[in-house]
Amino acid sequence: MMSFNQISLEQMFCYFDENGDGRISSAELKSCMSAVGYDLSLEEVRAIIESMDAAGGDGLLRLEEFIKLIEREEEDDTEMIEAFKMYEMEDQGCITAKSLKRMLSRLGYSRNIEVCQEVIDIFDTNNDGVLSFEEFKNMMMG
């Protein structure tokens, strides 16, 4: 996965900073996260900002804090990709009931193929019978 460079992060920060005051408020972060498909509550957004807010807890993100947040998210995704690769079958880019059963048995959990398919069906949002990376991520985060 390609890492963001400093310039594009600054451009992204300016995009999120709708009023141009050099800080991202919870409302601005919520609005921009919604625009890219993350529907977070104001409380969730405030918690994210609070976890990154090094400047005295003013509830706003400055550029340096924003960059740390994005870099932390990239690390989380890298770990999630590694976990996904452990579950997927022969580099097909998806997790099948068979590959889920295989990985669970390696972890010491014996499940039959029907149970594995039921688990996949719960998180299979596009109903193709397998888990994509995004669907796997939702399953692991849920």
UniProtKB/TrEMBL annotation:
<dbReference type="GO" id="GO:0046872">
    <property type="term" value="F:metal ion binding"/>
</dbReference>
<dbReference type="Pfam" id="PF13499">
    <property type="entry name" value="EF-hand_7"/>
</dbReference>
<dbReference type="InterPro" id="IPR018247">
    <property type="entry name" value="EF_Hand_1_Ca_BS"/>
</dbReference>
<dbReference type="GO" id="GO:0043226">
    <property type="term" value="C:organelle"/>
</dbReference>
<protein>
    <recommendedName>
        <fullName>EF-hand domain-containing protein</fullName>
    </recommendedName>
</protein>
<feature type="domain" description="EF-hand">
    <location>
        <begin position="4"/>
        <end position="39"/>
    </location>
</feature>
<keyword id="KW-0479">Metal-binding</keyword>
<feature type="domain" description="EF-hand">
    <location>
        <begin position="75"/>
        <end position="110"/>
    </location>
</feature>
<keyword id="KW-0677">Repeat</keyword>
<feature type="domain" description="EF-hand">
    <location>
        <begin position="111"/>
        <end position="142"/>
    </location>
</feature>
<dbReference type="InterPro" id="IPR039647">
    <property type="entry name" value="EF_hand_pair_protein_CML-like"/>
</dbReference>
<keyword id="KW-0106">Calcium</keyword>
<dbReference type="InterPro" id="IPR011992">
    <property type="entry name" value="EF-hand-dom_pair"/>
</dbReference>
<dbReference type="InterPro" id="IPR002048">
    <property type="entry name" value="EF_hand_dom"/>
</dbReference>
